[in-house]
Amino acid sequence: MTSQEFRRLALSLPEASEQAHMGHPDFRVAGKIFATLGYPESGWGMVKLTPIEQEMLVKAQPTVFVPAKGAWGQRGATCLRLKGVRAATLRRALRAAWLLAAPKPLASKLESES
């Protein structure tokens, strides 16, 4: 997985946009961040999940997914190594993060299309 592939997948979600936060590209829906590139460093990304979703990914692929440090990670922020993540897994993680950040009417529209 490359940064460009991560970017393409994140921006493929409805109404997703790219901005920057703390020197890192981030991806937002309705102004809320759902994913970040280059955090905590180059070659990494981050998705904002629920703690339960985070736990499942970390247990399934501990060499790819790790909780972010501190309280942010305790609330579900999950870092991932781009080099090791499969596209299908990243697509699901980005979608889950997007669903948490999206306004309810928009999120329910995407869920009904699934």
Quick synopsis:
With 114 residues, this protein is an alpha+beta fold.
CATH architecture descriptor: Alpha-Beta Complex
Number of strands: 6
Low-confidence stretches: none
What is the third-level CATH name, the topology? Aspartate Aminotransferase, domain 1
- Approximately what portion of the residues adopt beta-strand conformation? 25-35%
* Count of helical regions: 5
Describe this protein's structure:
With 114 residues, this protein is of the alpha+beta class. It has one domain: Aspartate Aminotransferase, domain 1. A 6-stranded antiparallel sheet has the order 1-2-3-4-6-5. The protein is globular. The mean pLDDT is 94.
Question: What are the key terms here?
Answer:
114 residues; alpha+beta; Aspartate Aminotransferase, domain 1; six-stranded antiparallel beta sheet; 5 helices
Blueprint of the fold:
Elements: H1 3-11, E1 16-21, E2 24-29, E3 32-37, E4 44-48, H2 51-60, E5 65-67, H3 70-74, E6 77-81, H4 87-101, H5 104-113
Antiparallel strand pairs: 1-2, 2-3, 3-4, 4-6, 5-6
